[in-house]
């Protein structure tokens, strides 16, 4: 049954579509067939309205045949937006952009690409686990295939977002998925930790989608660029068990000397200075001044960090002897302060991270994050009454960052000082 000009014009407006629903009820030939209307002046591209499902369909003739793409439900997509998507679909055909790619497929291809690229193995495993758990989701069968046995506690339902086509992905879809990663009813630190984890998962999804955009799997990146992460998630009060105790430090030092001697000096500097690992890893022999007993460090964190240098007093910190030993009999003098014994050059970040993880595991501290040395140093300094300006200058961070992250410790220290003042005042 051929459609009339009035039918084709009628799909533009809600009243016209309601009239078509009455004209072509269930059982009629046209009920399940899209009613197409040419888009603009592009005679090879049309947008169709399917009465049965109340959805939009794009059709474009390219390379001698018709190509189709589902655009979405009428209730979710006004005609003008559907028309724009139909035009974008036609453009994607001429540009060679692949259509019909789901988020799940993009994730799997992204992981395959990263596995064969230069991504560090340990980072790849973390990214893969996060994508599988929170973006793709595992079915029971997939879990059984992966581990050889069914682990019911490790089974998650497939996520709805994984089945979404990249071209149909909307900002609202990503927004709802991101918010749903945080369990309801959480408050305080528990809420901020959950939001922080959700933000990391959002970053992983955006990495996948940006990769897909560069690979021409999707025509636009508007959907995910509009979604913002949770804010104020860094104000997480640290618990006592997330700080290295005296016994923990003793175990780390003993394990390093016995099983990881190449890390012993570097570890000691991290424990006694609170410096970032990348700062110490990149330090050169020339950064240590034997006369003034100072160590120059450069903050490489964040955009535009090059040149943000500071000087640590090696004597009071107890690292002067370690630095002298590291510099002894070293040629050339312009080389790195701490070297990888296998290559004789600066440690590669991925390899050093892996070695430190092995060290922590061997010392029975596998539950701790790799920045624990810096966090413990700042925590001890705040608890010991070091003023925030001196601490911020020493650690190469801002007073605001220390104040927000270590608010609980600062409050406790302030209360103690006030109690002492009250005693003095009588």
Give the % helix: 40-55%
The SS-based structural class is alpha+beta
- Point out poorly predicted stretches: 139-156, 235-241, 302-306
As a percent range, the share of strand residues is 5-15%
How is this fold's topology laid out?
Layout: H1 5-10, H2 14-23, E1 35-39, E2 42-50, E3 55-62, E4 65-73, H3 79-95, H4 103-115, H5 121-136, H6 140-147, H7 171-180, H8 188-214, H9 222-225, H10 246-259, H11 261-273, H12 277-281, E5 288-289, E6 294-298, E7 309-313, H13 314-317, H14 320-327, E8 339-340, E9 345-346, H15 349-362, H16 372-383, H17 388-395, H18 399-405, H19 407-425
Antiparallel strand pairs: 1-2, 2-3, 3-4, 5-6, 6-7, 8-9
Helix pairs in contact: 4-5, 4-8, 10-11, 11-16
Structure description:
The chain is α+β, with helices and mostly antiparallel strands. The chain is built from 19 helices and 9 strands. Strand 3 (about 55-60) and strand 4 form a beta hairpin. The longest helix has 27 residues, at about 190-215. It starts with a helix and ends with a helix.
Task: List the main descriptive attributes of the protein structure presented here.
426 residues; alpha+beta; 4-stranded antiparallel β-sheet; 3-stranded antiparallel β-sheet; 19 helices; 11% strand
Short structural summary:
The chain is of the alpha+beta class.
